[in-house]
Amino acid sequence: MAADCRKSAGEGGMIYLDYQATTPVAPQVAEAMRPWNEEYFANPHSPSRSGREAEAAIEVARRHVEEAIGLKGGSVAFTGSATEALNWALKGTVEKGPPGRKRIITVATEHAAVLDTCEWLAGQGIDLTILPVDREGRVDLDGLERELDDRVLLVAVMMVNNEIGVTEPITEIANMAHEHGALMLCDAVQALGRVEICKGPDLVAVSAHKIHGPKGIGALWMKKGSEPAPFIHGGGQEMGLRSGTLSPALCVGFGAAAQLADERMNRDYDHVQKLWAAAVKALGPGWTINGSTVHRYQGNLNIRRQGVDAARLLGDLRDIAFSLGSACASGSGRPSHVLRALGLDYREARSSVRLGFGRYTKQHELVEACRRIAAAAQAQETLHA
Ligand code: PLP
Fold first, then answer.
1. What is the atom index within ligand 1 of the atom nearest the CA of 110?
2. Which residues are catalytic?
3. Cβ-count burial 47-56 (b if 16+ within 10 Å, e if not)
4. Residue 376 C-alpha to ligand 1 middle, in angstroms?
5. Considering all CA atoms of the chain, what is the largest pairwise distance in Å, rounded to the nearest integer?
6. For residue 217, which atom of ligand 1 is closest to its CA?
7. CA 195, 201, 207, 208 torsion: positive or negative?
8. What is the whole-number distance in angstroms between the Cα of residue 156 and the centre of ligand 1?
9. pLDDT at 331 over 60
10. Is the pLDDT of residue 218 over 80?
11. Which residues line ligand 1 (CB under 6 A)?
12. What band does 13 get if pLDDT is binned at 50, 70 and 90?
């Protein structure tokens, strides 16, 4: 429903506070994509002049995505989503791995795109270790060190958690993995364009729609020499690793979004910090922040309040788009695996909501939303008192 997801509340509109689920498309991105949707239709892999023009536009976009990722010595392959990039990274690395390395280590708070793929690989004979996190949502590095040995093929850890915003020390983790001859995969979907991507990983998955780009396109950055085995077979596009005709419009949109995010990162970051402070103040007392308040991206405010039924809160405030955690967790009715991993009990997890804000969030809208959320939570308490 278009009216549900307008960029700003405006008169009678929706206040959009679900920036981890997706972000509004930047006007500059829509404009960059427009001719590729409306005027040009050449196959970018055709040798015709228009085909070569489309290919050139894709290559410019690829450079922008690579620059936004900011890591050296590798290249980007476009995929249909970050979910695909993560599936490819995990399955393709296993396929190519040496016979003696059959272990994958990941973390309990990873996105389902990593956890479910790892579980599937475990069903195929991979020895899977899922590390716990502490009460703050951070992985225990001593625990990781104890698990690492020369049978580990890959360590997969996300940089910014999508549900609680907590950051992990990716460079340290990558160094530890490398010391044991393992590769490191980083899900940087919630990090790209918001914070600088940490150096060290061999594989990095990103997604356009989390940085004000279009849906339906992601990318896998691969350090030279660490490329996974080919994932989709066919015409040999994307260095023979991921076949299928690329969409110039989606690639150009991703490139424009990446360029813009790169240029605006500091400005967006400052804005987000101000929004965080305003939101915490407007919510008032009685709320606990889930996850570390130090090691975090502040555009993600995951909070709980004793006795609150968060699902009812969402129902009571239908003109505010916020969520129970990940979009997937919100739909399933199951309490979030991330909050459970933090050690929250069932009730605490059920009384948690996530507010996500960013570039286009207006402070007065966020403050209004937080005040209404706090009032609705208080009304629930009064009802049950
Ligand atoms: N990883 C994280 C941390 C995410 O937040 C998401 C999206 O919710 C994904 C992976 C999957 O991204 P995509 O929607 O491009 O498949």
1. 3
2. 328
3. eeeebeebbe
4. 30
5. 73
6. 15
7. positive
8. 14
9. no
10. yes
11. 20, 81-83, 111, 113, 158, 162, 187, 189-190, 207, 218
12. confident
